[in-house]
Automatic annotation (TrEMBL):
One of its GO terms (molecular function) is metal ion binding. It comes from Purpureocillium lilacinum. This is Epoxidase subunit A. It comes from the Eukaryota. Its cofactor is Fe cation. Pfam families: PhyH. InterPro entries: Phytyl_CoA_dOase-like.
């Protein structure tokens, strides 16, 4: 059974735009080792068209490696039970004040030497589906720390005027003039944050992965099948590497979806 959040926790989320729930507190995961096993299962899936959506990155040393997999809960019962289960739904309802539905699901692998993510807010990658509010549950699969590129946030930025460049990427001037707070997580910990919170992460400088799950939700009252609409649009204009067609222009997809994450070149193929 999910915990009841305290008034102090709810106030912290409202004021700062994020909240950390430790694994020992939320008790949604019996064995954190299962998270690692499930993530490895997803990463090992073959490249198939029209199903899960794996993306790659090119590291600073020129190696191409898995960067993330999206839209995987349809094909993995254990992940679906956690991400779409009553326990997490109860926590989200306490934060949002209403029922939520899954909008987007991804696992970021951040393998050794994996790239960082530019400072950004998520809203700009979602707003074409609807100008609505979203909440993300970031579940740590591996330990996330400063050395391996844990998330960094600007507390209170969800209600601030943020200067942007290149879509949802935050301008260098705004980024450099604000205080960023690192958010280390142990396996199983959950970081909850909204789609207007400024966040970023640095490169993984260790020899181990920093794998994390990000499940994003929207308010149920905002419509039906928004996840389906999101992924239909994404697959059309910014498909996984192995689904890209030679000679097709994916620049609009890059502008909509690729402004912060280290996706491999739109011209590359897996």
């Amino acid at each position: 059974m999910a915990p009841l959040l305290s008034p102090q926790q709810l106030d912290f989320y409202e004021a700062n735009g994020y909240l950390i729930l430790r694994a020992s507190e939320h008790k949604l995961v019996q064995r954190t080792s299962d998270l690692k096993k499930w993530a490895e299962q997803v990463r090992s899936w073959p490249l198939e068209k029209g199903k899960w959506m794996p993306y790659f990155e090119v590291t600073a040393s020129g190696e191409k490696q898995p960067m993330r997999t999206e839209k995987f809960v349809d094909y993995h019962e254990d992940w679906r039970s956690l991400i779409c289960g009553d326990g997490l739904a109860s926590i989200l309802k306490q934060i949002a004040g209403e029922d939520t539905l899954l909008f987007k699901d991804k696992i970021n692998y951040k393998l050794p030497n994996g790239n960082g993510f530019h400072a950004h807010v998520d809203y700009h990658a979602y707003s074409h589906i609807g100008q609505i509010h979203h909440i993300t549950a970031n579940i740590a699969i591996d330990e996330a720390n400063i050395a391996n590129g844990c998330l960094e946030v600007v507390p209170g930025s969800h209600v601030s005027d943020i200067e942007f460049s290149q879509g949802g990427r935050i301008s260098s001037a705004w980024e450099d003039s604000h205080n960023w707070v690192a958010v280390p997580l142990a396996p199983g910990d959950i970081l909850l944050f909204g789609s207007r919170l400024a966040h970023r992460s640095k490169r993984n400088q260790t020899d181990k992965s920093r794998t994390s799950l990000y499940a994003t939700y929207y308010m149920k009252q905002d419509g039906a099948d928004l996840r389906q609409k999101y992924y239909e649009h994404r697959r059309q204009i910014f498909p996984p590497d192995h689904e890209r067609e030679e000679g097709k222009d994916y620049q609009q997809g890059w502008k909509t979806y690729g402004f912060a994450a280290p996706f491999s070149s739109v011209s590359s193929r897996a």
